[in-house]
Amino acid sequence: MDYKNSLAKEVALIIGKKESEIIELFEIPKDESMGDFAFPCFTLARDLRKSPQEIATMIADEFVRSKLSEIAKVEAINAYVNFTIEDKNLIKKELNKILSAKKIIEKTEKKTTTLIESPSPNTNKPLHLGHLRNMLLGASIANMQKAIGKDAKIVNLINDRGVHICKSMLAYQKSGEKETPEKAKIKSDHFVGNYYVEFNKLGAKSEAKKNMLEEEAQEMLVKWEKGDTEIHKLWEKMNKWALDGFEETYKKIGFKIEKNYYESQVYQGGKEIILKGLKEKVFEQDDTGAIFVDLTSKKLDKKILLRANGTSVYITQDINLANIRHEEYKFDELIYVVGNEQEYHFKVLFEIYKLLGWNFGEKCKHFSYGMVELPDGKMKSREGNVIDTDELIEQVTELAKTAVKERFKELKSKEIEKRAKTIALGAIKFFFLKNDPLKNFVFDPKESLSFEGETGPYIQYSHARICSILRKAKYDDSKVKSYDANLLSREGDKKLVKLMSKFQEVVERSARELKPNHVCNYLISLAQAFNTYYSKHKIIQEDKKVQEARLTLIAALKKILAEGLDLIGIEAPEKM
Question: How many CB atoms lie within 10 A of CB 198?
Answer without folding.
Answer: 18
